[in-house]
Design a protein that fits this description.
homodimer, alpha+beta, 12% strand, HxlR family transcriptional regulator (chains A, B), DNA-binding (chains A, B), DNA binding (chains A, B)
Chain lengths: 113, 113
């Protein structure tokens, strides 16, 4: 048990949940779980994400030390993103959530309301 | 393995992920995991949620058959919300994600950027 509680609005656990409980954060972390990616690779891999949204999501995750950006000694110069140890700790929860979405997609899509 | 893929923008899995990958959906499902709740109980339990946002979140989850609203034969009349079988299937992933947030809250709160 933790002393933190996501039910409390001013608890750091709620802040932590706010940080990661959105589609783009989940998909980016899930994608980086397969290994480091360049920006262009992530943009190609993640359908429907705008460059602005991808940049914002990467910056947010980097600022919170879930991912790190590493400049590559290549020509032309490039950079890649990878999960930090903290980010890797999120990979399990994110994989479970994305797996649930993939497994139950059909049931949810059957909604005619 | 599923045929569905959250990386694809037009895949039902992405739609399913969009539905549940937000803080309020996570907290409401997590809360209902402890048993049925009346609206007023949920509102009291979930810190910081406005009535408008709670109503919207409950309607969205109900429309997608993750929760059900049951009218109670009480005086004054009341209603309670509970997870459906589909909603209960989401309880595991949501519990893992909320648990991660509670466990890593301190590390993330240490961010001074």
């Amino acid at each position: 048990m933790s002393d933190y509680d996501v039910f409390l609005s001013d608890c750091p656990a709620r802040t932590a949940l706010d940080l990661v409980a959105d589609t783009w954060s989940v998909v980016v972390v899930y994608g980086l779980g397969r290994g480091p990616h360049r920006y262009s690779e992530l943009h190609a891999r993640i359908g429907g994400i705008s460059k602005k949204m991808l940049t914002q999501t990467l910056r947010k995750l980097e600022r919170n030390r879930l991912i790190e950006r590493r400049v590559l000694a290549t020509a032309p110069a490039g950079a890649e993103y990878r999960l930090t140890p903290l980010g890797r700790s999120l990979l399990g929860p994110v994989t479970v959530l994305a797996g649930w979405a993939e497994q139950h997609a059909e049931e949810l899509a059957g909604d005619d309301d």
